[in-house]
């Protein structure tokens, strides 16, 4: 059997089996999300479900991957950023402390040689980043980590979109002959799919920062290995739209004291317009799938 299929199946089963146990652990550790006026749930919900995703991912990756220097760097960086998320799920870190933790975690794969050194020039050729390579790579990883965290606002939204993006990366990696990336991303995709069983509306557990930060960190680093950062930018257009909706809302409100959207990020706007939560999530999944198909088409032009 193909290693990436083994990785996907193994991580799926582990995540699916472990999630109920992680749910109990989250309550025990106080890693819970309490309802308020800005949240869609009306009861205390366990967070930290991403721990099941991460354990499934790491187990499958370590079982099926050849541990090269760059792979080790990504796995260690992913472990570090998941640890920051786990602590945040339990004790709610300040934004500054969490950002510092994300930067430190992002530096780990950079130290192992995983970095952006060249940028595609739309008018032909490439830009060599030289000494800007390190800060640019850290910015890329930290930005995507926080954008995935931002989209985690409805049951199954971040998990579903990330699973779709992961499958896209797998397909392109196989097409490019980047089998380590395909296996690593398959490990991630399987773990997400196993978790969605418990996270889709009505969810019984949230992935929390443990999951959303780990997803963003691993996906962004995987794209770096393929040297196709722009692919993830196109495939993850939904992430960009969500982030822009917050920027637009905050900027417009500061200048006019009025809001463009009923609530940001924009997935909450659709819900407040009367759409059912499940329908909003499915709509965003469909849009993410279209963006991923577009990215694949552009790759093959």
What report would you give on this structure?
The mean pLDDT is 89. Strands 1-2 form a two-stranded antiparallel ribbon. Strand 3 (118-120) and strand 4 form a beta hairpin. The protein is built from 12 helices and 4 strands. The protein is mostly helical and 301 residues long. The protein is globular.
Radius of gyration, Cα only, in angstroms?
18 Å
Shape: globular
What is the residue-mean pLDDT, rounded to a whole number? 89
Number of separate strands: 4
What is the H/E string?
HEEHHHEEHHHHHHHH
Task: Pick out its properties.
301 residues; mainly alpha; two-stranded antiparallel ribbon; 12 helices; 72% helix
Brief synopsis:
The protein is mainly alpha-helical and 301 residues long. The protein has helices spanning 3-29, 50-64, 69-91, 95-111, 133-151, 157-176, 179-199, 208-226, 229-235, 237-256, 266-272, 277-299, and strands spanning 32-33, 45-46, 118-120, 126-128.
Any chance you could write out the topology, listing elements then pairs?
Elements: H1 3-29, E1 32-33, E2 45-46, H2 50-64, H3 69-91, H4 95-111, E3 118-120, E4 126-128, H5 133-151, H6 157-176, H7 179-199, H8 208-226, H9 229-235, H10 237-256, H11 266-272, H12 277-299
Antiparallel strand pairs: 1-2, 3-4
Helix pairs in contact: 1-2, 1-7, 2-3, 2-7, 2-8, 3-4, 3-8, 4-5, 5-8, 5-10, 6-7, 6-8, 6-12, 7-8, 9-12
